[in-house]
Specification:
The chain has 325 residues and is α+β, with helices and mostly antiparallel strands. The chain is built from 8 helices and 14 strands. Bound molecules: ligand 2P0.
């Protein structure tokens, strides 16, 4: 017997970040987080369960994967098999339209697409909420990529109540993200390691938890009232607080490099010239500039003059998980 399904999921960038788990096995975060799903970066994944297979196989961008990435993927397949009560092996074929491991959150779109295609191919019919819970077990941020637009991952405290839900799938605000790739190499410290190290050793961790709760309330109000300036101000500040946890860990570390700080400075200077632009950074040196469509061309011109070699992409709000078959 053979059963196949294909799905596409887009990546998301957190405006209120997730940085630490209270349960590492189940991936239950210490705080709720909120993101914008983007149209520009996505993963297409096809999963085929076949009685004739004798092992799981994973092809990423047509290359067979072995090692930690394959192990994480096969562990996720086990969760799907448990839920579906089957013991058939599978072949996974993924095409990643995200620069892998460059701080552009490829694991979010990867595990959201795999949750969708894998569960359907295994014969399960899951609600979006159940898909979000399943995707969460692969990578926390994947829980949010099940939904389009603004998506909130409610932290919860157990496997059943930790899932994302849509805040506004059809975004009404004029908002775009300019991703500025200053370094496309793999990050040295994974998010998974970095966030737990910060949680265990930064003296400011509890303050982060308290501030994140307040930021989340204010962010939802900014979305509802279409207040771009409030959204950008909150997002930049929340990102800098997350990165200050890493700097204040013992030993301290950072995902930033010199270019990150120079671009952050450029974004803050844009605001002095009355161009509303805000920066957010994830587990890598690249910067995402939050901007309005009317300003993106000007911002890119100014960026390119200062940094002729950076790669720049414009991303708009994207939609949630879709099936391709
Ligand atoms: C986020 N990031 O909210 C935060 C901000 C990066 C910086 O979620 O351990 O790959 O697989 O749950 O989801 C990246 O962490 O970590 C991330 P795991 P994940 O988007």
């Amino acid at each position: 017997m053979q059963s196949t399904s294909s799905a596409r999921a887009h990546t998301n960038i957190a405006l209120i970040k997730y940085w630490g788990k209270k349960n590492q096995e189940l991936i239950i975060p210490t705080t709720s987080s909120l993101s914008l799903t983007l149209d520009r970066f996505y993963t297409d994944t096809k999963v085929t369960f076949d009685d004739k297979l004798t092992a799981d196989t994973f092809y990423l961008n047509h290359q067979q994967m072995v090692g930690p990435i394959a192990d994480k993927t096969f562990a996720f397949l086990k969760l799907i098999r448990q839920q579906a009560q089957i013991d058939t092996f599978a072949t996974i074929e993924s095409i990643n339209h995200v620069p892998t491991a460059a701080g552009l959150a490829s694991s979010a779109s990867a595990f959201a697409a795999l949750a969708g295609a894998g569960s359907k191919a295994a014969g399960l019919t899951l609600t979006k909420q159940a898909l979000s819970r399943l995707a969460r077990r692969g990578s926390g941020s994947a829980a949010r990529s099940i939904f389009g637009g603004f998506s909130e991952w409610h932290a919860g405290d157990n496997d059943l109540n930790s899932f994302a839900h849509p805040i506004q799938e059809n975004v009404t605000m004029d908002i775009q993200m300019i991703t500025v790739v200053v370094d496309a190499h793999e990050k040295k410290i994974t998010s998974r390691m970095g966030m737990q190290h910060a949680l265990l050793t930064s003296p400011f961790y509890q303050t982060w938890v308290n501030e994140a709760a307040k930021d989340l309330v204010a962010m939802k109000a900014a979305i509802v009232s279409n207040d771009f300036k409030a959204l950008g101000t909150l997002a930049e500040n929340n990102a800098l607080q997350m990165h200050s946890l890493n700097l204040s860990a013992k030993p301290g570390f950072t995902y930033f490099n010199g270019s990150t700080l120079e671009i952050l400075d450029l974004v803050q200077n844009l605001r002095k010239q009355q161009i509303l632009a805000f920066a957010t950074m994830d587990a890598g040196p690249n910067v995402k500039i939050i901007a309005q469509s009317k300003d993106t061309a000007t911002i890119i011109d100014i960026l390119k003059q200062a940094f002729p070699h950076v790669q720049v992409e414009i991303a708009k709000p994207g939609h949630g998980l879709i099936y391709l078959d």
